Amino acid sequence: MSNTKARLPQPVASEHIALKARNVSFSWDSTPLHWLPGDPFTTHTINVLHLLLPAGERWFVHVYKQVLPLIRDERLREDVIGFIGQEAMHSQAHDEVLPHLREQGLDPTPYTAQVDWLFEKLLGDRTLPPGRARQWWLMERVAMISAIEHYTAFLGDWVLNAEELDRRGADPTMLDLLRWHGAEEVEHRAVAFDLFMHVDGSYRRRARTWATAFTALVFLWQRGARFFMENDPTLVDGKASFRDFHRSGRAGTLPTTGDMIRSIPRYLSHAYHPSQEGSTEQAVAYLASSPAATAAEARANGAA
Question: Are the C-beta atoms of 254 and 248 separated by less than 8 Å?
């Protein structure tokens, strides 16, 4: 079956919300290197977000600006514009953590240089002739973003409910960054998939690009965690392994391996729609109480 248009996934209408970028800011002066006390592995596994997201979300924005002229539905166009604004802000917020890591003796430049190459060169624009080849490459990237957004929404929903991080005394500023970002990922979780279905919708492409995206994410994440653990100046012979990830998942400080595995068939189901997962109500409730988001709202209202 090459196309799902005969069996279109059904969105949950009540989960749709108008999207807006929140111009947040964070101060990292009081955030320790191991912001989850006594747990450098969980700290650094989550810290990989700061390495992957700035380049990745800049890439999202770049690709979506190219696909905007192909959108024929006005509400979807507004959703995509809102998505672009939120992703640009996510990229900036995570990018601003990197100088703080350098000040604490952990320079991420060797790793971020590789990530930049991946998104800017390997997944960037190619010198292709106008027509089918250029259109094919654009659709491949739109489909890949849809697959990646499945996992960013999965992680967003997880961190909003990760009470063990609170119990273990996670740094409140870092936790707010993660939950503000996670809440917005839940808010806009359907946009990338809806855009893909609107401009293409091929099930074969969805499955193929999911395999590529999932493999790349697992590879980059474990590589990033190992980079952090090996270069942490406070650790002697720091290491990271899948066993550590599994153990942290069982402890509640990271997603469980089982939940990650169960997310695969959901995305690959013909009936899948992102609005069926997570809760917009929960995301909006967090954003209404987030220190960074409420401060951004106050600044915006003051400027108005």
Answer: yes
